[in-house]
Every structure is written in C-alpha cells, then in structure tokens.
Amino acid sequence: MLRAAASRCAGGAIRRLSVASYSAAAGAWRKPPLDEGDWSYYKEWWGEDDGPGDGAHTVFRRHSEHGNGVVSVAAYPASIPASDQWPVMERWLQERNLAMYPESSGADQFKILGYQWRVMRFNDHTRQSTAKVMACYRSGGDRALYSMQQPNCLAVPYVKSMVSAGLTALPSCSYDLPRAVSEPNTMKILCIGHGGGSIPLFLASKFRGADVHIVEIDPVVVSASVESMGFPASCAKGLSDHTMQPADGDELLWNGVHDRISLHIEDAEDFIAGDSNIYDLVFIDAYDGNDIFPRKLWDADGPFLRNLEEKVHPVHGTVVVNLHSDSEASSPDVDDEAPFENVLPMGRYVSHVCRAYKRHFGLAFTTASPWLCNITMVACRDEAMLRGAPVGHSRRDFVLSKLLSRSGMIERVLDLLPFPCLQYVRNGFTLVE
Known about the structure:
Helices cover 29% and strands 24% of the residues. The chain has 433 residues and is of the alpha/beta class. It has a single domain, classed as Vaccinia Virus protein VP39 (Rossmann fold). The strands form three sheets. It has a nine-stranded mixed sheet with strand order 10-11-9-8-12-13-15-14-16, sandwiched between helices. A five-stranded antiparallel sheet has the order 3-4-5-6-7. Strand 5 and strand 6 form a beta hairpin. The two termini are 26 Å apart.
C-alpha cells in the first residue's frame, strides 16, 4: 500500500530510472526492455490526493466489512503499449485459442480493445495498489470480453523495492534461485495482503517452480482484483461466482501461470497457525483502510511472529515487509503516544517493527523506496547471510556487498526483467542493529 501523502516525500521531483543496469557477474552493461511501470508514467495513474481526479472513471465500488471502508477501483487510460504493438498480443491470443479449441480452425478472432491503469483505493484517498490491465474481445461463435493484468508491469516503486530486496536476499542465503525458474514446485511463496495481486502474478509468471499462496482477510478486496484488475478468478478460494471473466479466461490468458497461485480469504494469523507449508519467501503488505498495520503482525511476543518463524525455511527463509515511514504519529510535537499504540509501523516506529522481526529471524535490513515514503524491511537467518564474513569486517558492508553481487544474477535468470534490482537494493540500505 502507498499513501496519498507520499507525494509529499517525492517533493515533486520525478526522475526516470536508468535504462542501463550493470550485470556484476557478467561484467557487462545491458539495456533492459521498456519498463511499462516506470515512475515517469506516474501522471497517468497517480490521480489526486482526495480521489481519482480528471480522466478516470470508477469501475468498482463496494463497502468492506473488514476495516477497509469503501473499496474502489478507478480506471485511467494508458499510453503504452501503443496501438501499433497490439497485433503481437492478438496473434498470441489467436495461437492460444487455437491450441485450446483446434476445431475452431481460426474462426475466432481476437482484437485488443486497449490498456488501462487500474488503481485500487480505500476510502477514496489511500492508494492501495496499481496495475496495468489489457482488455480484449473474441469474436466468432463464442463471443467474449476478457481482461488480463500485465504481470511484468510493476507500477509502484515500493513493489519493485520489495521484489528486488527479497529476490536478492534469497540466493544470498544459499537458495538455488535459477532452479526455481525452470523446475516445477520448487519455490514456496507466501503473500500476506493481496491488493491487486501484482507481486504474486509477477513471481508466478517468472518462476515455473513457484507455488504462491496469498492470504487476504477481505473478500471485497479479492472481488475488486478479480472483477476490475484482471486477476485470475480461479486462484481465489471461497470467492462468490460473480466475476466478469468468461469461464475459459484464466486458461486462455494465463497458460498455466494461474495454476501456481492459491488465494485464501482468511485472517493471516489464523492461516499461518494452521498452515503446514515451509516457505522460502514471504511478502507482507497488510495495511487497512485507516492505514494501520495490525499490531498482531509485528508483536514480537504474539502468536503470528512465533508461528511465522516456524513456517519459514530454517536456512534461507526470507521475509519482506512493506513499511510506511511518513505519519503524523512520528511528529515530535505529539506528546501523547497512546492513540498510536496500534498504528505501527510509521515514522520513528519503523525501528520497533524491524527489531521484532530481527529478534525472530536473526538479521534484518531496510531499503528506502524512491519517490515514496515507503521502506522495505527484509528479515532472514543471520547464520546464512553472514556465512563467509571476514572477522572484524563491517557487517553492514559485507551484507550489502553480498546482496549487490547477486543482483546481476537475478536480472539474468529472470529473463526480460524490466527494472534493475541493484538500484532498489542499495537505495538507503541500512542494517538493523
């Protein structure tokens, strides 16, 4: 989740990510593909602090019973890919359709209707997530309208920060990441907090070995992602049958990617207590409509962290948490902290959360998300991360060097990665002491 107030942190200075990234292991520069989620496109989807703003129209609006207030999704026109590039996707859809329905003999034709940004908000102002969605139409005998979230497009900088930090920390703790790219069912991933589903879709599309479990307490959020943000409906467990996607939509559009994802509508504390999986990688982004990160998800003495410690791999297990660093709660003028007891982590309270996770996992570090007031915190096993550290060497420098040395490998094994991991890992890097 990102806050509307985060635009204050950007200070109005919008910079474009470098198009060149350094591959440390290969020792060569390369130019990655166009990043459709580059921050330079933010004006297309950012909107206004108090609502969608000009050029948007609301495509979903429903009241939540789980603390998120009014959940809405606004649609904004997207400038890329340009219409002259659409035939490539249309041909791919035609091929997929023919593989599924050989008897059609090409009678069904697909046309791209366009691409839109879809922005989920809580209570009309807090931006929860942003995704790019493609709409297409199938003519012929069984006419249908389909929508598909673009999994390679991560629009919000903090999401790229979370993915970059998590994927570089995992092999730094001796996890065989290249194997998970090619071999089925080799990488257990847990995502707590769903939003539009961009992180699980990105990971499931990049790792053939991914087995992704999502836990989201609010069925309205899940409905919004399925009905309005192009998330595959078949992944959701316990969702009502109401969806705008045709029955064959997931198989046609996702070509098996959706089979790597399971979405559970459940309280995270209850889920982790009863789950039998051992996870390699965990992502946590679980703010509610009041921008509160529930205390039970960071309480060092609570059952959630105790159970999570047992459900994360004992050697290379890695946990990535999105934290907000901008809040009036951190103002030095606030004398009474009692009202903010359950509003962590914000402002100076980020350190409390970091220390809680470090206590359970052994080592923690943070990176700052560019242009937004979000911090990515990563917790992992200290023995694995610090293995090979020279005596007397700076722990911070050793960990950062180890992470940066893996960033080039991440970009190589995840072919066509549109953004450089290195830039997000080293930005504001701090080792939690």
